[in-house]
Design goal:
- The structure is a single chain.
- By secondary structure, the chain is mainly alpha-helical.
- Helices cover about 45% and strands about 10% of the residues.
- It has a two-stranded antiparallel ribbon with strand order 1-2.
């Protein structure tokens, strides 16, 4: 398998995990296609409070749960990502493990995506 095939499969897996990574039972709502697209967009761009309000992930409990899990895996402890929805509601997501600290400044590398994916899998196991 070539490097680009592996990267494509990794991106597809990340999008699937980010779109439906096991929310709490009270948050069990269907994942609309728009959330899946936004999750894929999240994996392709930097984690930035300014871009999150444009994504529907921020507007639903399940989407915020996904963001909280991703930020907790990706960013280091002591780092927080705050975004304000279009209606003015602020949400803050705390870093934890720091497996992809550069994601706040640029799109994650393949290695960073793989580490965050593994983190999400372990938390959902």
């Amino acid at each position: 398998m070539s490097g680009s095939e592996i990267e494509m499969k990794t991106m597809a897996l990340i999008a699937a995990i980010l779109a439906g990574c096991g929310a709490e039972p009270g948050l069990a709502e269907p994942t609309p296609p728009s959330l899946e697209r936004d999750a894929a967009a999240l994996a392709a761009h930097r984690l930035d409070g300014g871009s999150l309000p444009q994504m529907r992930l921020l507007g639903t409990p399940r989407g915020r749960d996904v963001l909280a899990r991703v930020v907790s895996c990706a960013l280091p402890r002591g780092t927080a990502l705050t975004a304000i929805t279009r209606d003015g509601t602020p949400y803050s997501f705390a870093g934890g493990l720091g497996l992809a600290p550069g994601w706040i400044e640029h799109a994650p590398s393949g290695a960073e995506r793989a580490r965050v994916t593994a983190c999400l899998r372990l938390r959902d196991a």
